Amino acid sequence: MSENSHIKLLVIPELFPLNDNDHAGLYMPDYIKAVQLFCDVSVFYPRLVGQTDAELIRDPRGFSIRYFALLRDQPRFLKRLFYVQWFSRALKVAKKMGPFDLIHAHGPLLHGNLAVQLGKHWNIPVVLSVHTGPFSSIANNPFYARMAKRSIERADLTLAVSADLQNDILHSGFTPKRIEVSGNPVNDELFKPAKNKTMSKKMLFVSRLDENKGGLRTLKAFHKASVSLEGWQLLVVGKGREMAAMERYISQHGLEKKVRMLGKMGREKLAQTMATSDFLVFPSEHETFGLVPHEALCAGIPVITSNTTALKEWVPAKAGLQVDPLDVEAIAAAMLKMADSLDQYRPEELRATTVSRFGNEAFGMKMKGLYQSLLSPCVV
To answer: Does domain 202-356 have CATH number 3.90.226.10?
Structure first.
């Protein structure tokens, strides 16, 4: 195979959005788009629980997805026994799809171990991306830790999406053959600055509405800051366990005209909403990468993010403000400061910060170099 020939790549994701309303593994289509520049991609997406009808999905983005789920409902008992059944069936189905030049799995548990077994069957390299954070959720569970250790230590290359996550993996006692920091791709074709934009007096929060993501803390901070922010609104995109508490808070404090709860939002509408907002507030307690802030930067708006985990690593100081994610007063102060200094941020510069590192072409070239380092000259 010549230098310009495409690599035959099997992607095995732990999560994958099968439709516009599915937000699981949102980064996966962007990842595939990036590597399609030099790979012929097939996706194998076996699930333990889901829609049990097996099918081959022709994605309009130019790749096929082989999908099945073992069970329709989450098992109440003997879950590990179903893991064995899932693994056996997944292995059988995947073997009929090959051969390939290389496998890239996302997730170190079931899917990572499946990839390692298939790599051994076809005698091809295996790349394993780890996204899970905090990694202690795996390392502190003996059963999960054994599965993850096996896949991470047998994969030819482990990719952590941040140095923070890489350190967590290594400090947990895992010894990969080789480990690199990859980041995640950002869809720079979808997330773009608005043309002829003017100040809208809108700040944006986007995430699952779970406690660790900081939705309620953002709302409380906005309530404090709004006394000095005449005409400003907070837009909240997402759903989750904190939603009812946030709605009660809005009602109790008469914030109905200042806060808009927009629920889940499709990617195209989200890109438009980001581009027309003035800045993003994202005080998450823990991120292994932080896709939402990077999408905001790609759309040309500055961000208020946490001074912890991967966010302090990946989001540059010139792109916004960093705060203690648990300090409501600090978040409120950052809102006031950001609203008063928006003219310091240039949309084109904010976008360039992300595109140069994680845009479709930049991320694809990074993956190409990593893949080629694992393949023999006759393949690449």
So the answer is: no
CA 129, distance to chain mean position in Å, is 12
Q: H-type helices in the chain, by residue range?
A: 27-35, 79-95, 110-122, 136-139, 142-154, 163-171, 215-225, 243-252, 267-276, 291-298, 309-314, 328-340, 347-358, 360-374
Do 7-185+359-374 and 202-356 fold alike per CATH?
yes
Give the start-to-end residue ranges of the domains of the chain. 7-185+359-374, 202-356
Q: What are 192-226's pLDDT values in tens digits?
A: 999 999 999 999 999 999 999 999 999 999 999 99
Amino acid at 360: N
How far is it, in rounded angstroms, from Cα 133 to Cα 335?
27
The Cβ-side half-sphere exposure at 73, using a 13 Å CA radius, reads 3
For domain 7-185+359-374, the CATH superfamily is Glycogen Phosphorylase B; (3.40.50.2000)
**Cut 0.70: pTM above it:** yes
From the CB of residue 49, how many other CB atoms can be counted at a distance below 10 Å? 15
Residue 204, C-beta contacts closer than 8 angstroms, at least 6 positions apart:
234, 235, 237, 273, 274, 277, 279, 280, 281, 296, 301
**Lookup result for tokens 């595109």:** 355
